[in-house]
Amino acid sequence: MHLDEVKAEAARLSPWAHIATIGADNKPHVVPVHPAWEGETLWFSTSAGSVKVRNIGANPAVAMHWQVDESGDGVLLSGTATVHTDIETKRRLWTGVFDYDLNDFIPGGPDSPDAAFVAVAPERIVVLKQFGMGGRDTWHRT
């Protein structure tokens, strides 16, 4: 399976995905995010002080799941996350990568100290059809 096929399937399902992180206390945390692809990197914006950011600092392994539609199709991703708060990255990503206005979520713009972006480098992605009963395709980072 090619990554472009994975991206198309995830986009078909939902613009939203849930990300699971694990904190220093070994407790899971799952929240929705609105990611965007840039090449082979999946990005999402967040607050620099969020639980996600703290958890990624403790353990960069993450899992993501695109919402299953009525057919039972879904996309599962596992990878490694890094947090980016440098002004150059924030300004670069602020326009042109996401399909929504980031100002709605971080009113101070890319120069805000609260603005952060998380890059997820996927290692394995599974596309399920009908909860897996209709088949599955897998993409691996080469």
Automatic annotation (TrEMBL):
- Its recorded name reads Pyridoxamine 5'-phosphate oxidase family protein
Origin superkingdom: Bacteria
